[in-house]
Amino acid sequence: YDIIFKVMVVQELVKSCGEWARRSINRLYRGWRGELIKMDKEHYLFDFRRPETINNFDCLTDSEVGGKSTASITLSKYGRLLFSGEVSMMLEKDIDFTGFCGIRSKPKLGLFNKVELTDIGFYDCVEIKYRGDGRPYFVNVQTGSMMMLNKFDLFQAFLFTKGGPYWEIERIPFSKFYQTYKGFAQDEQMQFNNIRTIGISLTDRKSGPFNLEIEYFKVVKIGHQPQTFKTIRTNRFQRDNSEQ
What we know:
Layout: H1 2-32, E1 42-47, E2 57-61, E3 70-75, E4 81-87, E5 101-105, E6 108-109, E7 115-116, E8 118-119, E9 125-131, E10 136-142, E11 153-160, E12 168-173, E13 178-181, E14 184-185, E15 194-195, E16 197-202, E17 208-220, E18 229-231, E19 237-239
Antiparallel strand pairs: 1-17, 2-5, 3-4, 4-17, 5-16, 6-7, 8-15, 9-12, 9-17, 10-11, 10-16, 11-13, 13-14, 18-19
Protein name: Complex I intermediate-associated protein 30, mitochondrial
Family: Belongs to the CIA30 family.
Pfam families: CIA30
C-alpha cells in the first residue's frame, strides 16, 4: 500500500506541474500576442434561473442502503431548484447509518467522454443564493485529484439556513472547507483548485420534512480570504489566517 500511495503522490505532482506549465505557456503566448488576460471576479457553476439546469443534478438518499428517507429535485413555483423530501431515522436490520439526503451535480463530459474539471485557482470563495427551512446542510465539493478517487472523499462546509421567505447569500471561503471521508474529518488537509462535482447534503439526524430552494452556485474572487490550511505537529489542523 505504501508503494501504491507513493506512486499516486508522484502522479498527482506530475499532473499538477503539467497543468501549471500549460497555463503558464498559454498566458505567455497570449501576452506575446498583445492580448489582455482578464478574469471575471465571479464564475457561475450552475444558474438555476435557467430551468434546464436542474437536469445536471442527481438526487441521493439513504434508500440506496436500505433507509426510508425520500427526496426529489423539482422546479419551485419561482423557477428555481427545489430540493425537498423527508428524512427518516428508521433503522432496518443490518443497517448502521440512516437519515441522509443529498443532491450532486453530474460530472461534465468532454471529448471522448473525458470528465472536464472546472479550474477555480483564480477564485477564493463559493457563493450560494438560497432559502431554506432552518435546518443545517453541508456544501460538498468533489475534486479531480488522484488523491481523492473514492466517491466518499469530499471537501465539506456548513450551510446554515434561517428559514422564512427571504433569500440568503452565503460566501464560503475555500479555507472553510475540510476534507472528509464518509463524513469524518481527516487529520491531513489538502488544497483544491478544481471542481469535479458540487452538491448539498442533509445529515442532521432529525426525522421530518425539509426543503431548500437554490438560485445558483458560483465561485467568486474577493481577494482577502486565506486559501490554505496550516498543518501542525499534533496531526490536527488549523487554518492559516494570513492573507494570500
